[in-house]
Amino acid sequence: MTADTSADTSADTPDEALLDLVPYGAIEPLALSVVAANIQAVAGLPTRIQPARPHPEDAFIPTRYQFDAVKVVNALGGEKDGARFRMGVIQRDLCIPILTYVYGEAQLGGSAAVISFHRLQHIDPKVSYERGAKIAIHEAGHLLGLGHCREPGCLMRFSKQLEQLDSLPIRFCPACEYEIARLLRKAASNRL
Amino acid sequence: MASPMHIMVVDDEETICLALSAWLTKEGYAVETARSGQATLDIMAQKHFDLYLVDYKMPGMDGLQLLAEIKMRHPDASVIMITAHGSIQSAVEAMKRGSIDYLCKPFDPEELSLLMERVAASRAIQQAESAEADQWAGPREPSWEGIVGQSEALRTVLSEIEEVAPTNAPVLITGETGTGKDLVALAIHMRSEASQGPFVAINCGAQSESLLESELFGHERGAFTGAVKARRGRLEMAGNGTLFLDEIGEISPKMQVNLLRVLEEKKFCRLGGNKPIDIDFRLVSATHRDLRQLLREEQFREDFFYRINVLTIHIPPLRERLEDVPVLADFFLQKYARETGKPVEGLTPRAMEILLGYSWPGNVRELRNVIERVVVIARGRMIGADELSFLHAYGDSRRVGPATLKEAEIHHLQHALESCNWSITQAAKMLDIDRVTLSRKMKRFNIKRP
To answer: Is A139 a catalytic site residue?
Structure first.
C-alpha cells in the first residue's frame, strides 16, 4: 500500500531533488508527505515539498467552477527555478478544456504536472492519500515520457473510475518499471 | 503487434486540438490535428487516418460537410462528431450521415475512454475480417508461410511437410505452445490438393462446448434462442479445402464422438436441422498436449485419436534448436521496425548472447513478443543488452540460472503466470498441468499475484 509516511519524504538538499511538489492553497501536510514518499519510493524521483502557494486564480474558470489544469501545468512548466520536474497539488477540482474533469494532468515528457484531491476524497483519509499518491505517480510517469499502459495491474493504466484506481497496486508493470528506470537514468544524467 | 490507431482531431479551437491530442497521445494513439475542414482534406491527400474526431461547428466547411468528404475519400474511416451541449439534433443528423458516434463538449473522461476502446475493438475486428478475407481470396503462391529458421530440426519439419502435404490423410501436429503449429498447418494446406479451396481454422480450446458445436456444425434458423437465421459452420466452409482444428486435445468426449461420426460418414446435419450435408475436406489437427497420456487417462477416445493421427509432425521447442534464434530475431526485428517505423537495424553481440542464453519456455511466440517489445521501446539503431535485461528478471537464462531445482520450478511457474496475466487456467494450460496441480504448487511455493 502507501509507503511509510515516516520515511524521508523529501530530498535533503535542493540539488538532490528531481521533483518539486508545489501545494496550492491548503493541503493536509500528511497528504503531501504520503504523495512525496510514494513518488520517491515507486517512481524513484527524489521529491521535495515546496512551501504552499495561493490558488492559481489565472487558471480559474468561473463558468465551470474548476481550475484549468493545462494553464496550471503551463505556468509551472515555465518557471525557471527549482527541480527538474514540478508537480502542483491542489484540493480544488481540475478540468481541461475538452474534459469535464481530470484527476491530474502532466506534460508528456515535459517538466510540469498537477494533481487534485477534489474527486479522490474517501471517508477513510488513508484511502484518499493513497489515491492521491497513485495519481501523482501516474503523472510522474507521464513527466518521464511514459504513455498509458494496457497492463491491468500497472499504475500507468488509465483509470476510468475510482474503483479501478483503488484496485490498482502501487507499482508499475515490469515493462513500465524498466522504462522508468531507463528514463530516470537519462533525467539524472541531464541534471549533471 | 497491430500498428497504433491513427487519429485526426479537427477543431478550429487550438486549445481543444491540443488538449485532445495530448490525451489521446498518452493513450498510445498516433494523433495529428487540423484547424479546418480544408486543412484536413490537404493532410488526407498525403496520409490515411483510421479515425477522425471532427468538430461540428467550424467556420468554412462545417463538420457535416467534412464528414461527407471523408466518407467519399475513405469509406472505411470512422468519424466521431464533436458537438456542443444542446446540439443533439445535429449529432443525430451526423449519425444519419455516417458518423459512428458523437461527443458533447466537454466530454466525461470515462465516456471518451470507453468510446476509444470501442473504436479500437471494432477496428481490430475489421482488420481481422480483412485478413480473413485475404486468406479466403483463393490460391496463393507456395512459400514457407512465415516459417523461419535454419536448424537441422526445422529442416526435418519442412521435409515432413513436403512429404505429408500431397496425401489426403489427416495430420496431427504436436509441439509446445508458441512453436508455430498453425503455420505448419497452413504450409501443409498450401502444398496439398486442397490448396485451391479454403483454409478454415478454429481453436477448439478457446470456446465453450456449445459454442464450438455451433461454430463447427452451423445451425438452422430457430435451432436455439438467438438463432435468427441459418448459419454455415466451419465444417461446411472448409468444403474442398482444409479444416484446421487447433488445440484438439481440449475438446470434450462428446464432441470427439460427433466429429468422429462426421469424419467417418463424411456428412453431417446443422444444429436443429435434419438434412444431411455432404462434406469433403483435408483434416489437420494440432495440440500441445500429450494425447497418448490423455488416452491413458481416458480423457481422449482411442478411435478418434487414431482417426486424426494418421500422420504426425512434431515441432521441436525453440530451446532445442537455438540456432534458429538469430534468424528469427532478425526476422521479427525487421518486421516490427517496419511496422513501427523505428530505425532499428539489429542486435548487439551481447544482446544476441542474452537471447541465446535464454530457454524460451514460450517458444517462438515469446521470442516474437520480446523483439516486439524491445523495438517499441528502442531509442537507438541497435538493440543492446540493456534493453533485454528484463529477460534476466524471469530468471530463466541458462547462464544466469537459478541454483536449485526448486528455484527453477518457482521461476518457471512465476514466468508462466506472468505471461498469462496471472490466469491460473491459462497458465496451467501453457504448463500442460491441470489447474488444481498449479494451485497446489502456488500454495506450496507461496507464489502470489503481486
So the answer is: yes
Residue A15 has phi, psi (to 5 degrees) of -65, -30
Stated as kind and residue range, the H or E segment containing A67 is: strand A66-68
pLDDT digits (tens, 9 = 90+) for B318-374: 999 988 898 899 888 888 888 887 788 888 888 888 898 888 888 998 898 889 888
Cross-strand bridge partners of residue B7:
B31, B51
Q: Is the pLDDT of residue A55 over 90?
A: yes
Say how far apart CA A159 and CA A141 lie, in whole Å.
14
Q: Is B393 on the interface with A (CB under 8 A)?
A: yes
A158, B22: Cβ pair inside 8 Å? Answer: no
The rounded Cα B312 to chain-centroid distance in angstroms is: 25
| Average confidence (pLDDT) over B90-118 | 82
Q: What is the pTM of this model?
A: 0.51
Say yes or no: B377 contacts chain A, CB-CB below 8 A. Answer: yes
- The H-or-E segment that residue A105 falls in is strand A104-106
* Cβ separation B28–A161 shorter than 8 A: no
The 10s digit of each residue's pLDDT in A139-177 is 999 999 888 887 888 999 998 889 999 999 999 988 888
Distance of CA A14 to the CA centre of its chain: 19
β-strand B171-175 against B101-105: which pairing, if any?
unpaired
Quick check: B364 and B318 in contact, CB under 8 A? yes
The long-range contacts involving B339-343, CB below 8 angstroms and separated by at least 24 positions, are B339/B1, B339/B3, B340/B1, B340/B3, B340/B375, B340/B376, B342/B375, B342/B376, B342/B378, B343/B381
pLDDT digits (tens, 9 = 90+) for B423-446: 888 788 778 788 888 888 888 888
Burial of residue B408, with CB atoms counted within 10 A of its CB: 0-12 exposed, 13-18 middle, 19 or more buried: middle
Closest approach of A81 to chain B, Cα-based (Å): 25
